[in-house]
Design brief:
Order of helices and strands: EEEEEEEEEEEEEEEEE
Distance between the termini: 13 Å
Largest sheet: 6 strands, antiparallel
CATH superfamily of the largest domain: Calcium-mediated lectin
CATH class of the largest domain: Mainly Beta
Oligomer: single chain
Strand content: over 45%
Length: 167
């Protein structure tokens, strides 16, 4: 029986509520993001863009409220990460009856994760004088010195680390 209740992600992802087959309230909760803690109501079609905090992992949980004990973590069953071109997606299924009497159907709340973006631009574009390879001050393009290259610094954010955590 699965006891995974939390998944860690790095970077920027979109969470999409794909399906729901549960009578109890359901939600997805993320923590340690650039925006702190965020909650996505478990209504099919709802989405949430989650922006990571650099290379620091953020946590994803799916929770249910049985009406008696408040919000509780559901068991998670992560699917395989699929790579199609530059897109990374992963389906995560959840089970809200976390006891031995569970039906283990893992269809109570199903979400799809979609990786956002491939690169990050940490600084503004800047001018480079090619004859001397000098970076010019911001906004300076002096025509008397000749042609300039427009330069931009980028960082690969497409790849990520995913760690499965147990309760």
């Amino acid at each position: 029986m699965s006891n995974i209740t939390k998944l860690d992600f790095v970077g920027d992802w979109r969470i999409i509520i794909q399906s729901r087959s549960a009578s109890w309230d359901q939600r997805a909760v993320v923590e340690n993001t650039a925006s702190g803690r965020l909650t996505l109501t478990g209504i099919v079609g709802f989405t949430l863009d989650v922006y990571g905090d650099g290379q620091n992992p953020w946590e994803l949980r799916i929770q249910h409220d049985d009406g008696q004990h408040g919000w509780q973590d559901s068991w998670l069953k992560p699917g395989v990460k699929e790579i199609n071109g530059s897109n990374i997606t992963q389906v995560i299924e959840s089970e809200d009856i976390t006891t031995n009497s569970s039906d283990l159907d893992y269809d109570d709340l199903v979400i799809r994760m979609e990786k956002l973006g491939m690169i990050d631009q940490p600084t503004r574009p800047f001018a480079v004088l090619p004859s001397a390879m000098l970076v010019m001050p911001d906004g300076i393009f002096e025509a008397t010195l000749g042609r300039y290259f427009m330069a931009v610094r980028v960082r690969n954010i497409w790849t990520e680390i995913s760690v499965i955590s147990h309760k």
